[in-house]
Amino acid sequence: MTTASVALEIAVTSPAGAVVAREHGADRVELCVGLELGGLTPSQALVETVHETGIPAHALVRCRPGGFVHDRGELELMEREVRTVLRSGAAGVVVGALRPDRTLDVDALRRFVDAARSVSAVAEVTLHRAVDHTADPVRAAAALHDLGFTRVLTSGGASTAVAGAGTITRMVDAAGSVQVMAGAGVTPADVPALVATGAAAVHLSAKRRASGSAHAGVPMGGSDDGSAHFVTDAEVVAAARRAVDAVG
């Protein structure tokens, strides 16, 4: 594995975050909103504005927080969201769906892939960390080529990518031409261990709480504790870039 072949992806929630990621060495961004909820589908305007920053953006398509077993209405909505974000300038989409038995919902995933490629034949399609909730992430990774996926984001089924490094190595072997991207709880110091798995990319949020953005007012929802929102930390992105470049 050569250093040049390892991509650095940063999860961002705003055009400003995309600019920070671009200026400090990220190869691409994953764009979402509600990062504290695990990420949700960004708006059309947000996708369009991030596209204008010039960095390739892969839009998360996830219509709600919680688990990855979706009903018919949710699947239809996300299928439409796939087409919308790609038409708005996203370079790819990040999707996922499971069956109640903790296997991949292959019918839903095929619908997402077909929707993406109906907009752009070269749209990249990533399976998100729903894979880490499957009964067997290695077996799931092995199925992705036939489903038309470009890559999979994974922690190896563990709480952090470093903890799941052994499984990530096995997923790399099983995935064949599908790229495996290591992510979850990643810091720049973790990069060498994750590159050693054979992963094609490293993913991190590089986030910090925005100063002065907390509130002590009436809660705006059940999960609103008044904490500040997250922004992309330039120093963390730059440190991750240096770590990727130093490996090998």
TrEMBL record:
* Cytoplasm found in the keyword field: yes
The cross-references to InterPro entries, in alphabetical order and at most eight, read: CutC-like, CutC-like_dom_sf
One GO term in the molecular function aspect is:
copper ion binding
Pfam families, per database record:
CutC
Q: Which GO terms describe its cellular component?
A: cytoplasm
Q: Where in the cell is it found?
A: Cytoplasm
Q: What is its main location?
A: cytoplasm
Q: Which UniProt keywords apply?
A: Cytoplasm
**Does the keyword Cytoplasm belong to this entry?**
yes
Per the record, the similarity remark reads: Belongs to the CutC family.
Q: By its UniProt entry, which HAMAP family does this protein fall under? A: CutC (MF_00795)
The identity of this protein, by name, is: PF03932 family protein CutC
Q: Give the gene that encodes this protein.
A: cutC
